[in-house]
Design goal:
alpha+beta; 8-stranded antiparallel beta sheet; 6 helices; globular; disordered N terminus
């Protein structure tokens, strides 16, 4: 069962998250004209039977889940563009928590959360160099860097924008950082990390689409290939 935005049964455990998620529903019933472009929840919604659903169910170790989103698609795009206009030293701090996924049933503890921000290519290399990090070659391009640290997974992607942000976008990477608190103490092999990386790639591809990344960095499906010698054996 897929619901969104928000999850009413989680109010007690996740009040801060849900207060944000409920904001996404305020436009409902307002009499506004139907919007053009992707739906409000495009970045987070997952179709039944899709590769994203199959991966997420494995990662959550659940038969079903609910989800919520924090920002309507046009608001997400505007927020990311505003953040990119900021000073370079603020880029790491200014992230937009976009999607949250909650397992149903007995696996009711924890969640998976996707956040997007702009980071420097140097940050990606530092992240990949952390002891124990498992790095991935996902597209055959050295510019696309995937890194997994057990219950967190990061993807750094070059996103070339047009117009006023063209030059600035050349100096940063779109950075998807994902927390899988649902897997605390449960990552016993690299299979879970590989599934997390695959899922993050596919969801980040939607962000590159709505942001208008002209280089289309994630247009192909990922080949989740760990870089030799990275991560614990």
């Amino acid at each position: 069962m897929r619901l969104g935005p928000g999850r009413g049964s989680q109010t007690r455990r996740f009040p801060a998250v849900l207060s944000l998620l409920l904001l996404a529903a305020t436009a409902c019933g307002s009499g506004e004209e139907p919007q053009a472009g992707p739906p409000d929840d495009y970045l987070c919604t997952i179709a039944p039977g899709s590769p994203e659903e199959k991966l997420l169910l494995k990662v959550l170790r659940s038969r079903s889940f609910t989800f919520g989103f924090n920002h309507r698609t046009p608001d997400f795009v505007e927020g990311m563009r505003i953040n990119l206009r900021g000073e370079p030293e603020t880029l790491v701090r200014d992230g937009l928590v976009q999607c949250s996924y909650y397992p149903n049933g007995d696996r009711g503890f924890g969640q998976a959360t996707i956040e997007f921000r702009w980071s420097s290519p140097a940050d990606a290399k530092k992240d990949a160099a952390v002891e124990g990090a498992r790095s991935y070659d996902l597209t055959g391009s050295a510019d696309v860097i995937g890194v997994s640290h057990d219950v967190s997974t990061d993807l750094y992607v070059p996103c070339r924008l047009s117009g006023e942000l063209a030059e600035r976008s050349k100096r940063v990477h779109l950075h998807a950082t994902t927390s899988f608190t649902v897997n605390l103490g449960e990552v016993h092999d690299h299979g879970t990390q590989d599934q997390q990386m695959d899922f993050v790639y596919r969801m980040t591809r939607r962000a590159t689409e709505v942001l208008g990344c002209e280089n289309k960095p994630l247009k192909k499906d990922p080949v989740v290939k760990p870089v030799a010698g990275t991560g614990a054996s």
